[in-house]
Design a protein that fits this description.
This protein has about 170 residues and is of the alpha+beta class. It has 5 helices and 7 strands.
């Protein structure tokens, strides 16, 4: 069984890259992100950090908005706080589009989670997500993550209110 066949049960993969190596890289990155975020949704940030390595200049645009986070802190204290934010979750990833060129790869996904977040009761948390990976020293590292909860869409009036900070 190829990696792509093994991945098919966990995520739909659409590959726009043109060569077998790029296809393999995309499949590996999709599988790795699925494993990492599955662990995180269960509150296991240590496993997440072991699977998902980040670039030094990593940026995070959280689904809750606010300032862009620069860097990923892998200290035991931070991982404990991060893991405590998510509990009892399930995770599935739908890859909508992928792009690979040289040392950069992008996954455009819809993440489907049912999870307790920030002390709230368990609920569905579908997110539109863009993951940007950069190859450094032969290893693919996460350079950027942008997530938003607008899978179901909102009206232009609701978007305008959010833009005004309401």
């Amino acid at each position: 069984m190829t990696r792509r066949q093994a991945l098919a049960g966990a995520a739909a993969v659409t590959v726009s890259a043109h060569d077998a190596t790029a296809n393999e890289n995309i499949a590996d990155l999709a599988a790795r992100s699925t494993r990492a975020y599955t662990a995180l949704m269960k509150g296991d940030a240590v496993t997440y950090a072991a699977i998902m390595k980040h670039t030094q200049d990593f940026t995070l645009m959280q689904p809750f908005g606010g300032k862009v986070v620069h860097g990923f802190e892998a200290s035991p204290e931070h991982l404990a706080r991060l893991g405590g934010f998510f509990k009892n979750g399930d995770f599935k990833q739908e890859v909508i589009q992928s792009i690979s060129s040289g040392d950069v790869a992008v996954l455009v996904t819809i993440e489907h989670q049912s999870v307790e977040v920030g002390g709230l009761a368990q609920q569905e948390w579908p997110l539109r997500v863009t993951l940007v990976f950069r190859r450094e020293g032969g290893e693919w590292l996460l350079a950027h993550r942008h997530a938003d909860p607008l899978v179901h869409g909102i009206s232009v009036e609701q978007a305008a209110a959010l833009a005004r900070g309401r």
